[in-house]
Design a protein that fits this description.
Layout (H helix, E strand, L loop, with lengths): L10 E9 L12 E6 L5 E7 L3 E7 L7 E7 L6 E7 L6 E6 L14 H7 L9 H14 L1 H14 L13 E4 L12 E3 L6 H10 L20 E2 L9 E2 L5
Parallel strand pairs: 1-7
Antiparallel strand pairs: 1-4, 2-3, 2-5, 5-6, 8-9, 10-11
Length: about 240
């Protein structure tokens, strides 16, 4: 008698971890409302729990229904969520979500000048240590949200792997003495910010344009925070704009 093929797994594993604004797990005993919605827009789970991690099994559809929506909420915090959370039985999935306090404010206790100037040396370039510390602490006091945005952006940049290094390796200084007091500011990067290998891949896969600069024009995508300009430009400007 021929063997009967085993049935395909019909459940996927999902682990949800909830953190507070200090990147620590939400305190034990804090009520958290968990909501799980599948790709068919069917709510499969909605329940209050008093712990910061939830492990559960959800249906596996083997189609777009496996693109889940996960939402968490707790009193005193802003709602957080993520979509799509793509699930499959073969790969247990872990999702980390951060709940930000509604009345929260930036806390820079772990980002003093002596620490930041080593992690982000371009902030200290071109000025004395005393002047660098003064303008950093002025920004911390007068425009804390702008500083929080800068630290968030540079943290993300440090995790972007370019053909050589990360974007932070190319940032060298702040342009202009008024930069810290303006609505926006422009860190300057060294040349070779657009690698030749990346340029080659782009030009080989893009339609050719006529004109003297058609072979050296780097891509510029709508909405991009980075204006790369020409590939072998002497500077790269990153602009953070207060909306």
């Amino acid at each position: 008698m021929p063997a009967t093929p085993s049935s395909a797994p019909d459940k996927s594993s999902l682990l949800i971890n909830v953190y507070d604004g200090t990147r620590q797990p939400l305190a034990d005993g804090t009520d958290v409302l968990y909501r799980i919605i599948d790709g068919n827009q069917k709510q499969l789970f909605v329940q209050d729990e008093n712990f910061s991690s939830l492990s559960l099994k959800v249906p596996f559809y083997d189609n777009f229904g496996d693109n889940y929506n996960v939402i968490v909420f707790s009193d005193g915090y802003k709602q957080a969520g993520f979509t799509p959370v793509k699930l499959a039985p073969s790969i247990p999935t872990s999702l980390d979500l951060m709940l930000i306090p509604k009345d929260g404010h930036p806390n820079f206790a772990m980002a003093p000048w002596d620490f930041i100037k080593t992690k982000l040396p371009f902030l200290a370039s071109g000025v004395s240590d005393a002047d660098g510390k003064s303008r950093y602490e002025d920004l911390m006091e007068q425009r804390p949200l702008a500083l929080a945005a800068l630290l968030n952006i540079t943290t993300a940049m440090s995790q972007i792997q370019l053909p050589q290094g990360t974007p932070l390796d190319y940032l060298k200084s702040i342009s202009g003495t008024r930069a810290w007091r303006r609505t926006d500011f422009s860190p300057i990067a060294t040349r070779n910010c657009w690698s030749r290998s990346a340029l080659r891949r782009h030009t080989e896969s893009s339609p050719q344009k006529s004109g003297p600069d058609s072979s050296t024009q780097a891509p510029r995508q709508a909405g991009s925070r980075f204006n790369l300009g020409k590939p072998m430009c002497s500077s790269l400007f990153m602009r953070t704009i207060q909306r």
